[in-house]
Description:
The chain is about 45% helix and about 15% strand. By secondary structure, the protein is α/β, with parallel strands linked by helices. It comes from Aequorivita viscosa.
Amino acid sequence: MKNKIALITGATSGIGMATAKLFAKNKMKLVLCGRRAERLKTLSEELAELTDVYTLKFDVRSKEDVKTAINSLPKPFSEIDILINNAGNAHGLDAFDEGNTDDWDAMLDINVKGLLYVTNAILPKMIDRESGHIINIGSTAGKEVYPKGNVYCASKHAVDALNQGMRIDLNGKGIKVGAINPGMVETEFSEVRFKGDSERAGKVYQGFTPLKAEDIADIIWFAVTRPPHVNIADLTVMCLDQASSTIVNKR
Ligand code: NDP
Ligand code: 8X3
């Protein structure tokens, strides 16, 4: 994997940041993406001691900004071998009839359309090279629907469908496509979902041991280090105490 180039969306936090750190330790070249420039700077300075790093600040919701950013990559970083489609969040946890349409827009625009725009911008060079690996970060929320999960679950079901659709349509073109679907991972995810209410966010993970971002990074690393003929198509992972979106053993 040394010197392979990986582009990670949502590298400023959580699963994306943990993956960036693990990839850097293994000497992969990195393109780190997110909206928070200061975090991108701090992370790239830290990882530059281990590998070559380039940062791109853009909002995945903007089709134009995505295209401009990806097209601006300098030669040493422009041939992306591995795309980690990770940027995404839940916004709100409300019954459907009490839902906030701005939250709905955010989830569908970021988790679904953002993933499409980034993939669309990167794919042509993978097709030309007949080589590449796309990992879509789905969720258990893309496998089942839970109370008040409505639109977030819909966005992750869409990721599940797109993961299958990409794999089908790219079959025979030398490109691996697979999804990693985590259950509850303690990151900034719930802080974002509850709009900065740390107390409410913290309660989500109380009384059991949730997954850590590093657990998912390990699995992503496993997926990208399989032999050329092996593609992890769809992998779901939960912590020991979680059995489904609604069944969590809290001690
Ligand atoms: P975090 O909130 O810690 O990280 C989310 C990342 O997405 C940040 O780096 C953020 O960067 C980026 N992001 C969000 N919105 C945008 C945007 N509009 N444009 C560009 N980047 C954006 O959450 P996680 O690490 O937990 O989440 C990562 C992925 O994992 C998401 O797709 C999430 O749905 C999925 N997931 C998370 C689970 C969990 O329990 N935590 C479980 C299952 C799946 P910035 O703000 O700098 O733009
Ligand atoms: C994140 C996991 O259960 O909060 O996708 O939806 S959950």
